[in-house]
Amino acid sequence: MTIKKVALTVGIAVLFTLFIVLLVDAIYKSPKYEDYCTQPYFPKQVKNNCQPVYDEQLIQQCYKDKGELRYNYDEKGCEKEAYCDSCYKGFNEADSKYNKNIFFISAIVAIIAILVGLYLPKRVDAIASGFIFGGILVLLQGTVRVFGDLGKWSRVIVLAIELILLIWIGYKKVKDKK
């Protein structure tokens, strides 16, 4: 491959990946923290002359419920009462679902791009390679998005399936020149 073909391949791969990522983001909106949690994330600065509010049972229950310990404040800025805010749990659940959907969308688009690249005529090899490389990058992007929401074995299984798929496609369609 000449430097022009390599540049074209890399350019198509990168721009295809960005195009797909931004297109999906424009069509399928991600959950926003503000839609689930109305309180500011960072608590107010507590004054030195205030008595801290401490409730061990509430702290333990809030931790168990995967909530966040928050406080109501009096007019002097002192903590008045503590409560458990579970808004973050709702946001996390919505974000996890969103990431899984992004993974499936990315996987489908990636496989289509790889197959398009494999079936393009030989005379447009640099373009075909760009689609294959772009498809791999889109697949990688979707995998990275969902990785934090998967368990240890699910991660291994997803990567194994992706690797087997790429090896199978490579074995069936990409031939070494002799």
Give the biggest beta sheet.
Answer: 2 strands, antiparallel
Number of domains: 2
Low-confidence stretches: none
- Rounded to an integer in angstroms, the radius of gyration calculated over CA atoms is 24 Å
Ends: how far apart?
Answer: 16 Å
Descriptors:
178 residues, mainly alpha
Q: How would you explain this protein's 3D organization?
A:
By secondary structure, the protein is mainly α. 65% of the residues lie in helices and 7% in strands. It folds into two domains: 3-32 and 89-173, no CATH class; 35-87, no CATH class. The chain contains six helices and two strands, in the order αααββααα. Strands 1-2 form a two-stranded antiparallel sheet.
In short:
The chain has 178 residues and is mostly helical. Helix content is 65%, strand content 7%. It is elongated, with a radius of gyration of 24 Å.
How would the blueprint of this fold be written?
Elements: H1 3-27, H2 33-36, H3 56-64, E1 68-73, E2 79-85, H4 87-119, H5 125-147, H6 152-173
Antiparallel strand pairs: 1-2
Helix pairs in contact: 1-5, 4-5
